[in-house]
Specification:
Blueprint lengths: L9 E8 L12 H15 L7 E6 L20 E3 L5 H7 L6 E9 L2 E3 L5 E4 L7 E6 H9 L11 E9 L9 E4 L13 E6 L23 H10 L10 H17 L8 E5 L5 E4 L8 H13 L3 H14 L15 H8 L5 H11 L7 H14 L7 H11 L7 H6 L5 H4 L5 H9 L12 H10 L3 H18 L2 H19 L3 E9 L11 E8 L7 E2 L11 H18 L10 E7 L12 E4 L2 E5 L5 E6 L7 H5 L12 E5 L3 H10 L5 E5 L6 H10 L3 E5 L12 H5 L6 H9 L13 E5 L21
Parallel strand pairs: 1-2, 1-4, 2-3, 4-8, 7-9, 8-10, 13-16, 16-19, 20-21, 21-22
Antiparallel strand pairs: 5-6, 6-7, 10-11, 11-12, 13-14, 14-15, 17-18, 22-23
Helix pairs in contact: 4-5, 6-8, 6-10, 7-9, 8-9, 11-16, 15-16, 15-17, 16-17, 20-21
Length: 760
Amino acid sequence: MTGRPDPLRTHALVVAVEEYTDADWNIAGPYADACAFMSWLVDRCSVPAGNVTFFSSALSPSLSRTDGTPLLPAGVASRPADSATLPPHLQEHMMSLEADLLWVFWSGHGLIDAGGSHVLLLADSTEHTKRVVAVDDLQLALQSTRIGRNKGTGVKKVAVAVNACQNQPRDETISRFEVGANHSYVTERGLFVMHACSTGQLARLAPTDIPVEGEAASLFPRAVLEFLDDGSCGVLPDLHRVSERVDKEFARLREAGLTWQSPSLLRRNWDGRTTASGDFQLSLTEQEKHLATLLDGLLPDDAARSACAERLAARVPIVIPVSDGTEAPTSGQLVASADRVPHGVATLLDVLAVLPKRHASKEAKQAVRAAGWQLRPDEFLTGDEFAELMRLLAAPAVPDPCLTAKSDRRLRHHAAATGDTATLLRSLEATGCRTEGDSPPPLFRLVAALAAESGPTGRRLAKWSIRVAKRIGVRRAVKYQLAVAEYEAERRRRAKAWLLVRIEIDNPDADTGGGRYRHSAWLIDPAHPRPQTLQHAEGTQFMTWRHTQLSLAELIEPWADSRPGTGETGVDLGVEFFLPGGQLELQVERIPVRYRGVENVPLGQVVSVVVRYAHRRTAWHDRWNACSEDKAPGDDLWLRHDAADLPFLKTRLANSPRVACVELEGTCAEFTPALAYCAEAGVPVMTWHRRLDGARPAVDLRELRTVVHPRKLPEEVRQLRGEGDTPSRAGKDHLVLLWDDPGRLPPRIRPRVPGRVPPT
């Protein structure tokens, strides 16, 4: 937007609350205030009446003039100003707004709650419970991506006028209603807020000796409208000049003894800097008072506080207010100012660390830092650290942070509800900066994963991580995570080797694990041009299942111990078992191996293990193509079905050629018939629960279906099995994959000549 806002692209949200469920709170005047403001917009500035959204609860005498005509401007409709209507509108219905300017006007009762917050009463407040909207929450919502289409860019500027008292309440129960999302991203949108009074004061009605119909009924709206209506018919006059003239007008009224009311103005320039007048910004909460008291010990004189204020103002977009007649802000003003901007408190703590050394004990400094973290537990980055991280993540070489987070089981729930990088970072930051053992804070886990995939930018991300981690005391854990992430990235860049194992049975009708078995094996390694036959693994005779397990463990252990990439001979390994149709439930993923000196480690916890049907003949490329990388994972790829209902399963697969994956469910003792039919029908990926003492654990696999791409399931399952006893793993060590992939065909297996590889 350039120049003056277009009246046709100007919108307004207007609230007037006069009549409350608790009739003791009824007050006449706010409806007239709101109608006067809307008349200025619609009649004087030519804003379309349809651009005005009006919420009201008016007393009957307020609705019309003495001649019976409505006071409400023509074309403006009214909605209830209650908790069932107003908060949802702010939460959900303004995200598609597109405007040069949004005006917000509120007139009604206001209070200061027990926590020191200014709150506005809604119409359905009862005798025992006051239903309110917090002014700070409202301002944050108006500054956030919740307002305006295209992640908030659809609304350029917001101007706010609040005509409500800020006095201490009676002993009441207050119920606050959310008007914005938690961790919503605060934009750089220009915001200019004017309040009718300062903390502890009442917003007074205008004298009633000479009432003028059509004018505002309260002192503050009347003064604001007088100076807004400067004859230019512009919807956005110079608000700095308007607020200064309002200040002077109220100074005149106070000198004349007509009121003690003193408006408080939060003037946020359109370039993002903030100034303030009045005392409302300095009303400290108990936590802020505690930090300010501790801060007095570190900043005992004006020179120290001035230096702190100068450095703080240079790093966060705010101007620290200074009391009249003083040269430096108080500790309370420093804390209050820092606590009202994103990452302000963390920046203040960092500023204290670089100020000239004072005679303060180590314990005093630690107490200040602990109080700061307690005040803002959801923020530990400073303002410039957050801005630098956002710049680095915007580089072209950096992968999409949200997609990267979704690929990590420990991070994906933070990215599940948003595609916005800043919101993701705030969500991860809010989990805290403290760590136990070698587990890094979640934010650093994401940055490490991105750094490992980002080339030169990745080195700058790694330096950022180490610098921030050193400041907050988690440098060791973060350095370890950076090394692990680089190690995993290098492993992913190398092509994976697969050990292919074919198992035959002398009696196809034998129960699972009850026949006699013979095996053959090949290694497909990207370092070699053709598959390698592992001669010593060729079983020359049929063996019991126990002896077969021992033989396979002896075969696999050297390859498993060398993964991934501990030298030129190291490989990242996966094992594929080709099983007969009647033996698909052999628990091959549980073959006990010796791994890194530990006995009886289940194979599936060490390497990726998948099962393939040795005699499948059906072509199934179409189903596999439905799992292609360019299609996002989701429930639409999956068919969930009870393994006991085989006829219906056949019908569903026959009628759904685009279903790419099947998840078999149910409690029947034997899944093999359903597994065999799915394999013959050409479904390339299936999941099912293994038997555990005759039962199958009922674990919800929604995360695997909706988040993990089918092609990545083998590695995902291996990681789940190797996580140890964690809530996310519960039951997953009994998860098995029946897998196939037309992109990587094994050597043609000749049943009568085990191990023979056709020439290439």
